[in-house]
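Reference record
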Amino acid sequence: MSALTVDRLTAADRETWQWLFAGYNEFYGRTMPAEFFDRCWAEFSAAERMHALGAKVDGSLVGIAHFLTHASTTSADVCYLQDLFTAPDARGRGVARALIAAVTDWATANDCSRVYWATQESNTAARRLYDQVAENRGFILYSIQLP
């Protein structure tokens, strides 16, 4: 069996991280400019406002999770798992489940009251996992794009 590990990203992960993050954005129909990746990488490296973890199988980066915390009016701070992506050839091997567990562990250690995320209703493959590891509380997400 292959060794699966999850940890903070390092400088050596930068190129593969960008490839994975580009794949994530492609899935949602977005193409991002190079400076977007540079800004995100700088934020993740600082690990103050935004955080990133990487999943590796036998030492190769195959999955990423990006998350942040924010205040809540009804509880202690909460952790928002903003981006979760596994390389297509590594899917079905526990990578996303391990990343969710690692974010949950991080949030617990940082006194968050919960971890939450959103996905498209049509993302049935991901939702099969999400339905196993989390509660769908029936909320519908609305968004206003600003100029």
About this structure: The helical segments are 14-27, 34-46, 95-109, 124-133.
